TrEMBL record:
Residues at the active site: 20
Family matches, as Gene3D superfamilies: 3.40.50.11190, Glycogen Phosphorylase B (3.40.50.2000)
Bilayer-spanning residue ranges: none
Residues engaged in binding substrate: 159, 260
Species lineage: Bacteria, Bacillati, Bacillota, Bacilli, Bacillales
Source species: Evansella cellulosilytica (strain ATCC 21833 / DSM 2522 / FERM P-1141 / JCM 9156 / N-4)
Coiled-coil zones: none
Protein name from the UniProt record: Pseudaminic acid biosynthesis-associated protein PseG
Amino acid sequence: MMVLNVIIRVDASINIGSGHVMRCLVLAEMLKEERVEVCFICKNIRGNLIGIIKDNGFKVLELPNILNELEDADKTVQYLKEMDITWIVIDHYSLGEKYESIVRPFVNKIMVIDDLANRKHDCDLLLDQNFYSNMRNRYNHLVSSTCKKYLGPNYLLLRQEFNNVKGLTYQPTQVSKILIFYGGSDQTNETEKVLTAIKQHNFTSLAVDVVVGSSNLNISTIKKMCTDIGATFHYQINYITKLMVEADVSFGAGGITMWERCYLGLPSIVTIVAENQRKSVEDTHEHGAIINIGWHENITEKSYIKVLKDLREGKISLVQLSERSRALVRNNGCLQHPIVKEIIGN
């Protein structure tokens, strides 16, 4: 019988994006450091990151493109029956209490990573690493009273590379370099909008780093646009921290990379590209830690032109954004993450 300590159920796709898998990979690496064996269960669907998970040294058990939660649970249980599992970690908007109740007899403990707070969970441990004005009570009626909740960006799952750069002081005299990254797939094609704005209104004096993931459907177009304006094109990279440290300001979406930027104190111009990001982005903007320019359908090249002009004219206080975003994420990367402590302590 194959023995695995932790199973992670997570997916990536053209529609889902890459954020769920990337944060689970961070957790998997932390557990690996503690000599915990980790295995992933993922659907083999378009835009999956199964190859990247395997490249990071983790086994992946594949699921077909299952249609509903109960079928997903049944297929998962078929794998779990052959293993001795301590924890299952579930990071999936389509899975909730029904799925968790079905798999519970085959594991010792259940952890859920969520940020929607829109469904009940049968779990022992819950992580929501986003900021919300009401984050302390969002899950009060969605989990049992015995469930341990870790809520807010202080519990951000950070890659090790970020620990080495915490403490940098952000003091730009002017904006000379920008970073553009809207996630692995950039479904709403914000990258092209920003590049068009830069090209049309002669912001080409700026140094520009553009990052795209393997699931982006517009790679060739974006690469050509970068060549046309002299921007540096980066594809499916593992050095995003370096680019964040070098940038004066960033253009991106909500989600995990927004919190990584906040951790470093990199000022962020944020577009809401998915409904699940809306509340967190809006609340973080109200807190003064980012600039939220709105819902993607309402954002055009002209919207980005205005922001670029405001940056060039010094109308946006980047130092204040940096200070407030850094203060919001006080994750101490030098210490063992509380979630890891929970998992290895049981």
